[in-house]
Amino acid sequence: MNQFWCEYAWLGGDTATPGVLLGVDGDRIVSVDIDQPCPSSAVRLDGLTVPGLVNAHSHAFHRALRGHTQLGVGSFWTWREQMYAAAERLDPDSYHRLARAVFGEMVLAGITTVAEFHYLHHAPGGVRYSDANAMGEAIVAAASDAGIRLTLLDTCYLQGGIDRRGNIVPLTPLQERFSDGDVDAWVRRADALSSFSGATTRIGAAVHSVRAVGPADIVVVAEWAGAQSAPLHAHVSEQPAENEQCIAAHHLTPTGVLAEQGALGERFTAVHATHLSGVDVGLLGDAGCTCCLCPTTERDLADGIGAARALRDAGARLAVGSDSHAVIDLFEEARAIELDERLASLIRGHHDAPSLLSAATLGGARSAGWSDAGVLSVGALADFTTISFGSVRMAGVDAGSALEMAVFAASAADVRHVVVGGTQVVRDHAHVSIDVVAELAAAIAELRQPRVDR
Hints:
The structure is a single chain. The chain is an alpha/beta fold. It has 2 domains: about 1-50 and about 375-435, Urease, subunit C, domain 1, CATH 2.30.40.10; about 55-365, Metal-dependent hydrolases (TIM Barrel), CATH 3.20.20. Helices cover about 35% and strands about 20% of the residues. The chain contains 14 helices and 18 strands. It has helices spanning about 75-85, 90-110, 135-145, 185-190, 215-230, 240-250, 255-260, 280-285, 295-300, 310-315, 330-345, 355-365, 400-410, 435-450; strands at about 1-10, 15-25, 30-35, 45-50, 55-60, 110-120, 150-155, 160, 170, 200-205, 230-235, 270, 290-295, 315-320, 385, 415-420, 425, 430. An 8-stranded mixed sheet has the order 3-2-1-4-15-16-17-18. Strand 17 (about 425) and strand 18 form a beta hairpin.
């Protein structure tokens, strides 16, 4: 058995607990003792140790856009064209290199599990690779290399959208590589991924959006996820135009369509959920769904501010994601839920530090299908993150203020140690096996270099 001694640890209450000794056997926590001195044989974790952070919504390849999309006037829809251009250039090898480095950046930020919303399935133009899951397998390998748990949310994407009159829009040439052609082909390819599920990888499903998947096909994807007891995610009401188009086509909001097709439930996560009606909030809450907010992306794309407090009060759970990776910092995502809502409501105090930290840990773990993660307790997976008290941001911290300082002041740069499955993958702010900065720079440079047609 290995031991990790935490100067302070968050065990789920309102304050941090000093002197917590975690016993770990294999990948599980087998003992939790408080008010303990640090044994000489234990790994010493100075600072505040919390359950591993969970990134409940990621598109790894979007990381290549950081710093390249901030000029000029535009919207989500103009940004999307730049994203499509980046997607067009990836193949399994280059995607592995990029995702490995992006996942390394996540681990450095204290993230121990990522839910990757994966729709980049085929070659440009929709040409099939000889292995239909070559791109998904590249992501699985990248996560393993980086030492992060992965839920691969294999995403169904079948149509180009809905116009304002409610008509189906065909796929564009750039979107062809996202699509399997029909939902039965998606099922066959998703079935083939089941062999990758294991100790550090889970396979789930996603409906890209009601723009990209019609109601009858949503039923099939939801039934597939139900048969696998797998998580099911979907982008929901990220933009007002999405709601308008959906109502024109189906006389229901996106949430209403998903509810009518049987997609909502405790394994369902609505990503963004930015522009909801009161009825939508009630549907998601009554079904016990999770709502994953991605505030740094939602503000970067000028999407809007989600009604997190109303969703929580209605019975929905909250999680957070870094989505397009404008930054990778779940402390920023968590506190932005509260701070953005203050801007919208002119009232402080909708969400306290423990509830926001829970969204970034337990809420995300449940969303990603890891019911045995997100807490520091006996029997849970030994995934935990230590926040250093040594930076100027954390100066003045004590046991009583540790949680508030972590949530409302800390950044990803304050993560000092990360343990995944009982194995230390970040030690003293450095990844134990990957030069993340060098690999990220090289992978992004490769993706952005001028194309040479042959």
